[in-house]
């Protein structure tokens, strides 16, 4: 997951099949943040948004077009350039977690424990859950593909229902195994250890 160096930011709101989104880009058109406009949890800091932009700004439009094509099922791939501008203080662990999440293929899921093991810190499940919750690039860095222990759907920045819809869009049938054999269920469950309710 290559990140472009930080530059000044601006943001715009756009409608989507999942509800309104806030898209944050830099002067080069790289995505700095993608947030759910109605109740993103945790809410992004104002400094992570920059100034207001016209939704028809060509650089904003390039990102929103890619996101909307993915959410409408018109494309199986969601790739846009990313920038670290919104997370200048990100830790090495957070960056390692985000890189690991970015590598989860469409149609597959990983548990928080599996992500922790993959970055070489199998006992850091709680820290991994917190890092997942701080991912600024929702959808593009697919934190919705991280599930609780036993494959249960736990908290998500846009809400559990949005997470369920995203997984179904990507071919994960709830109540069955995903492409890796991990069972995925929408049965109610408390978040797995280290997976806070706000984790996207």
Automatic annotation (TrEMBL):
Tell me a Gene Ontology molecular-function term this record carries: methylated-DNA-[protein]-cysteine S-methyltransferase activity
- The residue ranges of the Methylated-DNA-[protein]-cysteine S-methyltransferase DNA binding domain are 93-172
| Keywords associated with the record | DNA damage, DNA repair, Methyltransferase, Transferase
Q: Which InterPro entries match?
A: MethylDNA_cys_MeTrfase_AS, MethylDNA_cys_MeTrfase_DNA-bd, MethylDNA_cys_MeTrfase_DNAb, WH-like_DNA-bd_sf
- Annotated segments matching region Disordered: 176-200
Instruction: Kindly indicate whether the keyword Phosphoprotein belongs to this entry.
Output: no
One GO term of the biological process aspect: methylation
The answer to whether keyword DNA repair applies is: yes
Q: Which CDD domains match?
A: ATase
Q: Can you tell me which family this protein belongs to?
A: Belongs to the MGMT family.
NCBIfam families on file:
ogt
PANTHER family, from UniProt? METHYLATED-DNA--PROTEIN-CYSTEINE METHYLTRANSFERASE (PTHR10815:SF5)
Name of protein: methylated-DNA--[protein]-cysteine S-methyltransferase
Recorded source organism is: Quadrisphaera setariae
């Amino acid at each position: 997951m290559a990140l472009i160096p930080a530059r000044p930011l601006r943001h715009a709101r756009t409608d989507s099949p999942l509800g309104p989104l806030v898209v944050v880009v830099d002067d080069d058109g790289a995505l700095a943040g993608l947030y759910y406009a109605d109740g993103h949890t945790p809410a992004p800091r104002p400094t992570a948004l920059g100034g207001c932009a016209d939704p028809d700004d060509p650089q904003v439009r390039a990102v929103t077009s890619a996101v909307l094509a993915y959410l409408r099922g018109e494309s199986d791939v969601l790739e846009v350039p990313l920038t670290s501008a919104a997370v200048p203080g990100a830790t090495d662990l957070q960056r390692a977690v985000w890189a690991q999440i970015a590598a989860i293929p469409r149609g597959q899921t990983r548990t928080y424990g599996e992500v922790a093991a993959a970055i070489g810190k199998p006992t850091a499940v709680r820290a991994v859950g917190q890092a997942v919750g701080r991912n600024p690039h929702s959808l593009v860095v697919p934190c919705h593909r991280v599930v609780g222990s036993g494959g249960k759907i736990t908290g998500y920045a846009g809400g559990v229902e949005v997470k369920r819809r995203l997984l179904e869009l990507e071919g994960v049938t709830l109540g069955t195994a995903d492409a890796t054999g991990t069972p995925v269920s929408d049965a109610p469950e408390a978040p797995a250890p280290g997976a806070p309710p706000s984790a996207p």
